Amino acid sequence: IIAVARQGADVPTAAVDWGTGPVPLLLLTLACLAAVPLAPRLLGRPGSALACTGLLVVVMLVRPPTLGWPPDGWVLAACDVGQGDGLVLRAGQHAAVVVDAGPDPVTMDACLDRLEVRSVPLVVLTHFHADHVDGLAGVLEGREVSDVEGSSLREPASGVRVVESAGRDPDPAAYGATRRVGEVTLQTVWPRPGAASGTSDESAPNNASVVLVAEVAGVRFLLTGDVEPS
C-alpha cells in the first residue's frame, strides 16, 4: 500500500489544485451532476471505457505545460526539493547561480529545465548535508557548470564524497569577498575565519554554512544556509 501510494503521488498530475471559494465549488458541483448521466453511457461500453481509461493515463503521466513560466523578469526561484534547499538566482539569459542542490538529482534537473537554465557559472553548496548536496548531479546534467564553492568545514564526509563523485572539488567560499556573476552580485558574510561553531547542542556543519547577501536586478536576498540560532 505504501509503495502504491508513493508512486501514485509522484506522477505529474496526481493531484490538481482546486479552490474552495463559491465559484470553484459551484463548478465542481455542476461537473459531478453532469457525470451522473454521462458516466454510465461512457463506461458502459468497452470501447468508450477503454478510451476514457487511456485518456486518464495520459492526463496523469504527462505534465501539462505551465503557461507563463518562468515569469518575465524573475530573479530568484526556490525549487520544490522537499527537505533541503535548491535556490536559483537568475544570472542572465538561460544562466543562473545555484545555491544548494537539494537531495535529489532528478528533481533539481527538472526544476532547472523548467526555468530554462542551460548555463551555471557558479554553484554554492552552503554545507555538505545530504539535503543540500545530493542533487548536485542534477545541476551538472547537460549544463555548462563553471565553478563550485562550498563550506570550509568539509563535514559530514558522506556529503563531501557525493560532491567528489560528481567530479567536483569545491573551493571554500572566501569570507568577505564581493563579486559579480553575470547579473548576480554576491557577498560572502559567513563563516568568519576562526569563528566558533556554536553551542554544543548545535550542528557544526549547519553553523559553518556559507551565508550570502545576493542582489539581482536591485532586489537583495540574505541566503542563510542552515545556520542555527547562535
Question: What is the secondary structure topology, with strand pairs?
Answer:
Layout: H1 2-10, H2 22-43, H3 46-61, E1 76-78, E2 87-92, E3 95-99, H4 105-114, E4 119-125, H5 130-133, H6 136-140, E5 144-150, H7 157-165, E6 171-172, E7 178-181, E8 184-190, H8 204-207, E9 211-216, E10 219-223
What does this structure look like?
The radius of gyration is 23 Å and the shape is elongated. Strands 1-2-3-4-5-6 form a six-stranded mixed β-sheet, with no helix packed on it. It has a four-stranded antiparallel β-sheet with strand order 7-8-9-10, with no helix packed on it. The two termini are 43 Å apart. The protein has helices at residues 2-10, 22-43, 46-61, 105-114, 130-133, 136-140, 157-165, 204-207, and strands spanning 76-78, 87-92, 95-99, 119-125, 144-150, 171-172, 178-181, 184-190, 211-216, 219-223. With 230 residues, it is of the alpha/beta class.
